[in-house]
Design brief:
Low-confidence stretches: 12-21
Family: Belongs to the CDS family.
Structural class: mainly alpha
Number of strands: 6
Strand order of the largest sheet: 1-2
Transmembrane segments: 48-80, 101-120, 140-162, 174-194, 200-226, 238-261, 314-336
Helix content: 55-70%
Pfam family, one: CTP_transf_1
Keywords: Lipid biosynthesis, Lipid metabolism, Membrane, Nucleotidyltransferase, Phospholipid biosynthesis, Phospholipid metabolism, Transferase, Transmembrane, Transmembrane helix
Shape: flat
Number of domains: 2
Largest sheet: 2 strands, antiparallel
Number of helices: 18
Radius of gyration: 26 Å
Pathway: Lipid metabolism; Phospholipid metabolism; CDP-diacylglycerol biosynthesis; CDP-diacylglycerol from sn-glycerol 3-phosphate: step 3/3
Strand content: 5-15%
Mean pLDDT: 82
């Protein structure tokens, strides 16, 4: 029996892509109460109502998490990351029949823990410096964080090499690559989402809401007006839905940004207060979130009848975010569609009735997270005095004194401090 099993896995290594078997069909997870309530409708309208009801439910839960604060949002991002990872890895197990490969399921989850340990450890070192300074055990972990992370990864790497079995090498390396690409897609991107959140909740909410708005409005416009196919990877996508979603998303992002920019809770950077052990969002809003007067272009003056308009500078940035969410963001969905077609599956999972898996709903969000992070670092972020101060507090007293003397000398030379303060 052991010989037969090895021969069967050896044959799998020689298959072409066209020989990949179909993944077992997913079950219908629609609640029975919805099935009975919508039983008289056609399949098209039944799917429309199921998607609509579940969409409203998910949006309601999302608003509840926002109300609960930044920490709960971070837990939500982590939960979504783990579920997306599970869905993609499970497809690999099914497609390549790799359930019986030695150690591999354990190794896949071990690598997830290692990568999360690395990224979240970096976040703790950056944003929780004063908290770490008070605990000697954490100081050791932070000081040698990258070495520990590297050692943990090497352990998994060596375990993988030791698990290699004759005649199964190609299959095992398929799954090794599958695991690492999945880690790149899920863990790295979710880390960027949290980094964006620390810049201010508005940098988290506007991009995510823009993608959700584009997804909903494109579906509605396509459902009612769609006639012209957009891309072969997604036959149901239409130009009418794509264009309608674009204009709707830009308008939504502009208006939504106006309301969020009025509240410190959304615009202030998220910081951890070690004295109260809570995240705080209190600050003097930056210029991005202070009302300014802008001149209306002459062409629009004739249409609107306005010469000037008052708005927040962030609203201009929201146009860039919404444009990316509606023009480039959908390509994350097209990429996911190509992935599913390559492996002959309809959805990543059947977690959400009418929607598929969690990854089916967040395929565009990961691409958006990367863009927002690059946008902030390229056009928005300047020196962060609060973060710099936390790093200075970690230094030894003699190092802090050296920094103080150097800074004082520099300020005197610039004329910012009075010469009388030299002594």
């Amino acid at each position: 029996q052991e010989v037969d099993f090895e021969e069967r896995l050896g044959e799998l290594d020689l298959r072409s892509d066209s020989d990949i078997p179909d993944v077992p069909p997913q079950t219908d997870s629609t609640p029975e109460i919805l099935k009975r309530a919508l039983s008289g409708l056609s399949a098209r309208w039944k799917n429309w109502w199921i998607r609509g009801i579940l969409t409203l439910a998910m949006i309601s839960v999302f608003f509840l998490v926002i109300y609960l604060g930044s920490f709960m949002l971070m837990l939500l991002v982590l939960s979504i990351q783990v579920k997306c990872y599970h869905e993609i890895i499970t497809i690999g197990y099914r497609v390549y029949h790799s359930y019986d490969l030695p150690w591999f399921r354990s190794l896949s989850w071990y690598f997830l823990l290692c990568v999360n340990y690395f990224f979240y450890g970096e976040t703790v070192a950056d944003y929780f410096a004063t908290f770490v300074q008070r605990r000697e055990q954490l100081q050791f972990l932070i000081r040698y964080h990258r070495f520990i992370s590297f050692a943990l990864y090497l352990t998994g790497f060596c375990m993988f090499v030791l698990s290699l079995v004759k005649k199964h090498y190609r299959l095992q390396f398929y799954m090794f690559a599958w695991t690492h690409v999945t880690l790149l897609i899920t863990v790295t991107q979710s880390h960027l989402v949290i980094q964006n959140l620390f810049e201010g909740m508005i940098w988290f909410l506007v991009p995510i809401s823009s993608v959700i708005c584009n997804d909903i409005t494109a579906y509605i416009f396509g459902f009612f007006f769609g006639r012209t196919p957009l891309i072969k990877l997604s036959p149901k996508k239409t130009w009418e839905g794509f264009i309608g979603g674009f204009f709707s998303t830009v308008v939504f992002g502009f208006i939504f940004s106006y309301f969020l920019a009025q509240h410190q809770y959304f615009v202030c950077p998220v910081e951890y207060n070690s004295e109260t052990n809570r995240f705080v969002t209190e600050c003097e809003p930056s210029e991005l979130f202070q009302m300014k007067k802008y001149s209306v272009p002459p062409l629009l003056q004739a249409v609107l009848g306005w010469e000037t308009v008052n708005m927040y500078p962030f609203q201009m940035h929201s146009i860039a975010l919404s444009t990316f969410a509606s023009l480039i963001g959908p390509f994350g969905g097209f990429f996911a569609s190509g992935f599913k077609r390559a492996f002959k599956i309809k959805d990543f999972a059947d977690t959400i009735p009418g929607h598929g898996g969690i990854m089916d709903r967040f395929d565009c969000q990961y691409l958006m997270a990367t863009f927002v992070h690059v946008y902030i670092t390229s056009f928005i972020r300047g020196p962060n005095p609060s973060k710099l101060l936390k790093q200075l507090l970690i230094l030894q007293p003699e190092q802090q004194l050296s920094v103080y003397k150097t800074l004082k000398s520099h300020l005197v030379e610039k004329g910012i401090l009075q010469p009388s303060l030299r002594g």
